[in-house]
Design brief:
Largest sheet: 6 strands, antiparallel
Number of strands: 36
Radius of gyration: 23 Å
C-alpha cells in the first residue's frame, strides 16, 4: 500500500527590504545533509532556513513566518557548499555562497554564510592571499577582480565550487576549507583559486559532483576530471642547498570524495587531495603541471625547496588530460571535440544519480543517462550516453543523489500542474567494448510509479529526501512524501 504525506506551506511575509505587496519566491535551494532550505525572492534576496523539516511544522500554523537568516539583494547566483575533512570523526560544515556585482559590475562580490553548531547561519570570515582575490571587511565578503557581466552561475560540491561567467567566457574552480581548529565552531574559511577554463563554446549547464566537472553544451556534455583542476599548478623554485630525490613519493593517493583536502607533512594544502610528486601535460596547450606538495602561500617544503601555487589554465576543448565530449546521439566518445553535425538540443540540466551516473535534460525535453565506468577518468574514457524514452516533454528535473541504494528516484515535471515520480534501477554500469554498442542502440526503459497533481502552476521542484519533494507554486510550497 502506498502511503502519501502532504503538506501545504504558506510562503512567508515579504521581508522588510521588499516593496512587494505579496510574497514572490522564484526558486528553491536545498542542502540535504544539514536540511537547510534557501528561498530566492523576486528581488534576488534570500531567506535561509536551517534544519527545515516540512512535516514537523505545526499543522495549525504551516507558515514559514520568520527566516533564520535574511540575505539582502542583489544576488546573481547562489549555491550550498559542504566542507568535509578527511578525518571520518569530524563533522562536515555547510556554507551558503552568494555572488553579486560589485563596483557597478566591475568586480564580483562573493559572500559566505556558514552554519554553526547552534543551527544558525552567520557571515563567514575568509582568508585569501592570491592575486585578484581580497577580503573586504566592510562588506564581509571576497572581491574577485573580474568583470561581473550579464550572468554568473555558481555550483557547489564538497570543498569545491565553480563559477561560470557568460560575459567573460570563463569558468573558475575554487577550493574552500576551514581555517583554524577543526573541532571548534569557527567561522573562518580559506579560499583558493585552483583553475580557470577558457570557454570557446556556449555552456548551457554546469555541474560539480563526485569528482567531475561536467559542462552542458550543444548536442552533449563535456566531462573534466576534477582532481587535476583542484590540484592546480605548482611552480617549484630549487634551493641550491637542498638535495631532492625526484623518484621519491612523499605521499600516497587516497580514495577521498571530490575536493576533500588532506593535511599531510605539516602542510596546509588546498590544492591537492594527496601529496605525490608528479609531472604531466594538460590539455595539449603546452601547460605542464609540476606538482610537488601543493603548498599555498609559497611555503618551504621539507627539502628546503620553495613552492608557489598557480591556477591551472586550460581551454574548454583541450585535448587529452582525461577531458572528453560525449554526444547525445553518437556511438563513440569523442575525446577532442564533436565532429558530427550538431542539432538544436542543448544540455540544460545535469544531476548526479551516483558516482558513475548522471541524468541530463536537454532543451527539447529529452532525457539522457551518462554512464561512466569509474569515478576516476583515465586517458581512454569508457563511458556512454543512453537515451531514455518518455512521452512527456520534460521541463523540470530533480534528483537527490543516493549511493546507498541501487534504485534511484527521479522527479519530472512538464512545467504545468503535474510531477511524476520515476524509478530507475541500477544495473551494472561498467562499460566495455563488447556491450557498449548494444547499450547505446537500445533506449533505456524506466517506470513512472506515482504522479502528483498541483492546483498551482509549478515553478520549481526540489527533492529533500529520497522519496520526498518540495513543489514551488505561485502562492505556496507543497511538500509530498511517498512511501
Amino acid at each position: 500500500m502506498v502511503v502519501v504525506q502532504a503538506a501545504k506551506l504558506d510562503l512567508p511575509k515579504s521581508p522588510p527590504s521588499l516593496s512587494l505587496s505579496s510574497p514572490h519566491i522564484s526558486s528553491l535551494l536545498y542542502e540535504p545533509h544539514s536540511l537547510s532550505l534557501a528561498l530566492m525572492h523576486s528581488d534576488s534576496s534570500f531567506s535561509l532556513y536551517p534544519s527545515f523539516s516540512p512535516f514537523s511544522l505545526p499543522s495549525h500554523s504551516p507558515t514559514l513566518d520568520f527566516p533564520q537568516t535574511f540575505i539582502p539583494s542583489p544576488s546573481s547566483s547562489a549555491t550550498f557548499l559542504r566542507l568535509q575533512n578527511p578525518n571520518p570523526n569530524s563533522t562536515p560544515r555547510v556554507l551558503f555562497l552568494v555572488a553579486s556585482p560589485h563596483r557597478a559590475g566591475a568586480a564580483v562580490h562573493l559572500r559566505f554564510w556558514i552554519l554553526r553548531k547552534s543551527r544558525s547561519f552567520v557571515k563567514a570570515q575568509v582568508v585569501c592571499n592570491q592575486s585578484g582575490l581580497r577580503f573586504d571587511s566592510r562588506k564581509v565578503g571576497v572581491v574577485f577582480d573580474v568583470n561581473h557581466g550579464v550572468s554568473i552561475q555558481l555550483v557547489g560540491s564538497i570543498n569545491v565550487f565553480a563559477m561560470y561567467s557568460v560575459s567573460n567566457c570563463k569558468i573558475w574552480v575554487f577550493a574552500v576549507k576551514m581555517a583554524g581548529d577543526e573541532d571548534d565552531d569557527g567561522v573562518t574559511v580559506k579560499l583558493m583559486k585552483c583553475a580557470v577554463i577558457d570557454c570557446c563554446k556556449p555552456v548551457s549547464a554546469i555541474s560539480v559532483s563526485f569528482g567531475f566537472l561536467i559542462l552542458g553544451e550543444e548536442n552533449g556534455v563535456r566531462v573534466f576530471p576534477l582532481r587535476p583542476l583542484v590540484k592546480g599548478r605548482v611552480r617549484k623554485q630549487k634551493n641550491l642547498n637542498s638535495r631532492v630525490n625526484n623518484d621519491r613519493i612523499v605521499g600516497q593517493r587516497s580514495s577521498l570524495p571530490n575536493g576533500v583536502i588532506q593535511k599531510m607533512n605539516d602542510s596546509d594544502d588546498l590544492s591537492s587531495n594527496s601529496v605525490i610528486r608528479s609531472s604531466y601535460r594538460v590539455g595539449g596547450e603546452g601547460i605542464v603541471e609540476n606538482s610537488s606538495n601543493g603548498y599555498p602561500e609559497g611555503k618551504i617544503d621539507k627539502h628546503g625547496d620553495r613552492v608557489k601555487p598557480r591556477s591551472m589554465k586550460l581551454r574548454q576543448d583541450c585535448k587529452g588530460g582525461g577531458v572528453c565530449f560525449v554526444a547525445f546521439k553518437s556511438k563513440e566518445v569523442e575525446n577532442f571535440q564533436s565532429t558530427k553535425p550538431l542539432n538544436s538540443a542543448k544540455a540544460i540540466s545535469i544531476d548526479a544519480l551516483s558516482a558513475t551516473k548522471f541524468m541530463i535534460l536537454d532543451s527539447l525535453g529529452g532525457l539522457h543517462l551518462l554512464c561512466l565506468s569509474s569515478p576516476v577518468l583515465g586517458p581512454e574514457i569508457p563511458c556512454h550516453m543512453n537515451c531514455l524514452t518518455s512521452a512527456m516533454e520534460v521541463q523540470k528535473l530533480a534528483v537527490l543523489p543516493d549511493t546507498s541504494t541501487r534504485t534511484e528516484t527521479i522527479w519530472l515535471s512538464n512545467g504545468h500542474h503535474s510531477v511524476h515520480m520515476m524509478t530507475l534501477s541500477d544495473p551494472d554500469t561498467s562499460v566495455n567494448e563488447s556491450d557498449k554498442e548494444n547499450s547505446e542502440e537500445k533506449p533505456m526503459q524506466f517506470s513512472v510509479t506515482q504522479a502528483i497533481f498541483s492546483s498551482e502552476k509549478i515553478q520549481d521542484i526540489i527533492p529533500f529526501a529520497g522519496n520526498a519533494i518540495l513543489i514551488l507554486g505561485h502562492g505556496s510550497i507543497f511538500a509530498y512524501a511517498i512511501s
